[in-house]
């Protein structure tokens, strides 16, 4: 079983920055993909960014150039550096770990971008 614990959400003004962290624990296979998804009120959950254990990344077009995903394999932790935040980035951000066809989710952390 895998546990994911997110941190780093909060309230920030437009143009500001936040850094999300997600620490994974439990039975983790070394080959995996970790990432971030988000769900805004009344909308479906969508991919934000993912990164493989080998360092390959993929971003949603809406965040390219503003968000950076990274990971520390030794700590089983994934990060999301979010810069130039916009009101439309407001959502609950969920951490995900995909390994051996099993998808695990964190509890989510709220990010609110508002003046």
Characterize this entry briefly.
The protein is an all-beta fold and 115 residues long. Helices cover 0% and strands 57% of the residues. It is built from no helices and eleven strands.
Element string (H = helix, E = strand): EEEEEEEEEEE
CA-to-CA gap between the ends?
Answer: 40 Å
Question: Spans with pLDDT under 50 lasting ≥5 residues?
Answer: none
Task: Indicate the percent of residues in helices.
Answer: under 10%
Strand content: over 45%
Radius of gyration: 13 Å
Largest sheet: 7 strands, mixed
Shape designation = globular
Average pLDDT, rounded to a whole number, is: 96
Oligomer: single chain
User: Given the structure, what is the number of helices?
Assistant: 0
The tally of beta strands, per DSSP, is 11
SSE-based structural type: mainly beta
Descriptive key words:
mainly beta; 7-stranded mixed beta sheet
Structure, described:
By secondary structure, the chain is an all-beta fold. Helices cover 0% and strands 57% of the residues. It has no helices and eleven strands. The chain has strands at residues 2-7, 10-12, 18-26, 33-39, 46-52, 57-59, 67-72, 77-82, 91-99, 102-105, 109-113. Strands 2, 4, 5, 6, 9, 10 and 11 form a seven-stranded mixed beta sheet that branches. Strands 1-3-8-7 form a four-stranded antiparallel beta sheet, with no helix packed on it. Strand 7 (67-72) and strand 8 form a beta hairpin. The chain starts with a strand and ends with a strand.
